[in-house]
Amino acid sequence: MRTGSEPVTARSALRMRLWLSVWGLIWAIFGTVVFILVGQPGWAAACAALWVIVTVDMTMILRHIREGPHYQPGRDVPPYEPVDERRRYRPPERRRPSRPSHP
Question: Quick count: other Cβ atoms within 10 Å of Cβ 32?
């Protein structure tokens, strides 16, 4: 929900995520190669799986960076109206069952 108090200069952390992905990619490649050379196929497979995950994440990050900024309402767009407490929903009152009248 938009409140009108959002920071004007807010930016996404996509570039930081990109560099962290590059760092993770370097370590995943290094781990895969080292564990293959040492003869640890299980750890090599784990590092290779991490390599794939980091590559997919990096691809998504680059895609979001290339898309550019998305529309954000400017200062001329007023915030949402505050909730009016007087118009809050109230469930209907429970009615007592009517008593049958005895003749």
Answer: 19
d(CA 66, CA 43): 34
Helices (H) and strands (E) in the chain, counts: 2, 0
User: Where is pLDDT greater, at 3 or 70?
Assistant: 70
Among 26, 25, 27, 29, residue whose Cα is nearest residue 54: 25
Chain centroid to CA 66:
18
Any idea what the Cα angle at residue 88 is, between residues 92 and 84, rounded to 5°? 160
Question: Is the whole model's pTM more than 0.85, yes or no?
Answer: no
Question: What is the reported pLDDT for 57?
Answer: 94
64 vs 42: CA distance, rounded Å = 33
- For residue 26, give both structure tokens: 């370097």
d(Cα 49, Cα 53) in Å, to the nearest integer?
6
Gyration radius of the chain over CA positions: 29
